[in-house]
Design a protein that fits this description.
two-stranded antiparallel sheet, 10 strands, alpha/beta, binds beta-D-ribofuranose, binds calcium ion, 13 helices, single chain
């Protein structure tokens, strides 16, 4: 039985690798569509990248819809220093030949979920800021019944990466993240606690380089990551956005804990923080129901091997 998944993304180097891993797993994952969201780069750039990637990966039949141009109330904050001016590191994609689905992100996503036959449900896999998902759940609240779970990349129970306290995807649109976390839909949070253990080293990049032409594109993207301010001088790069997909493929390789989770929506140094808002992470002092399953650990060697095996399938 294949699981229906919807990918919400801002490609993005690690988004591209994650999408490649997902497209190499269609024996287990049925990719029902992709929506784009402003995040790592502008909506125009990430949407072109998503279209180009689906062509590259042989997934032209998968709908790509353009999603939110900016966060709910904040200004967009592209991170070209990490993902490059074009979003995919040293790869400068050709203008994609295929065109977008004309409908808008949240409305199209709503229809796709609503029209699933019978008892079928959708698993949402957001790997960028949560703007589209918040718009979906806010505009069409009843659709929650047809959403199995949201397995997202974002947040951190410890320190952040865009600021000392916050992870980028949550920080970029904290109001959207808070709406999603409080929506009542079961949530698996693949945050920095686990994603910083999910690595590729230069050794793997060299293997990709020596494989086929598609793997060489992956390698060119990842080399930029190695050179970026986020990873310069480090021996490995974190494959944040692949984590939700590999979790869906083999949950037993991961462990985590259920927690009460709120997002700090302030304008100060706690903006986007997901760790101690309810004091519940470490001490479980609150009476509120636990709303998020926070992944904390992984069989890291398995992760690298499994991801590489999928990237080598092209
Ligand atoms: C997240 O931020 C983005 O830059 C990456 O694509 C990933 O989704 C990691 O914090
Ligand atoms: Ca991303």
């Amino acid at each position: 039985m294949r699981r229906n998944i919807w990918i919400d993304t801002d490609p993005g180097i690690d988004d591209a690798i994650a999408i490649a891993a997902a497209f190499a797993s269609t024996d287990r994952l049925k990719i029902c569509g992709i929506s784009t969201v402003a995040g790592n780069q502008t909506i125009d750039i990430v949407t072109d990248n998503a279209l180009w990637l689906t062509e590259l990966l042989g997934g032209k039949e998968v709908s790509v819809v353009r999603g939110a141009e900016h966060p709910l109330i904040r200004r967009p904050h592209p991170v070209g220093r990490v993902h490059g001016e074009h979003g995919l590191g040293y790869v400068i994609p050709d203008k994609p030949a295929r065109t977008l689905t004309s409908a808008q992100g949240a409305a199209f996503l709503y229809q796709a979920i609503r029209d699933l036959p019978g008892e079928e449900k959708m698993t949402l896999v957001p790997i960028g800021p949560l703007t589209n998902i918040a718009l979906l759940l806010g505009t069409y609240p009843k659709i929650r019944q047809k959403i199995d779970q949201i397995v997202l990349m974002g947040g951190s129970a410890r320190e952040g990466n865009i600021t000392a306290t916050a992870e980028y995807n949550i920080w970029a649109d904290p109001e959207a993240a808070e709406m999603v976390f409080q929506s009542g839909v079961p949530i698996v949070m693949c945050g920095l606690d686990v994603t910083m253990k999910c690595l590729l080293t230069m050794e793997e990049i060299l293997k990709l380089k020596k494989a086929g032409p598609i793997q060489q594109q992956f390698a060119r993207m990842l080399e930029f990551y190695f050179d970026s301010t986020a990873y310069r001088g480090k021996g490995s790069v974190a494959m944040h956005d692949s984590v939700p997909f590999l979790y869906l493929l083999q949950e037993e390789k991961f462990s985590g804990e259920h927690h009460v989770m709120h997002v700090s929506c302030t304008e100060d140094s706690c903006r986007g923080m997901t760790c101690v808002c309810d004091g519940a992470y470490t001490y479980s002092q609150t009476e509120k129901p636990q709303n998020v399953y926070v992944l904390k650990d992984v069989d890291a060697a398995w992760f690298t091997q499994e991801l590489m095996e999928r990237l080598m399938r092209y």
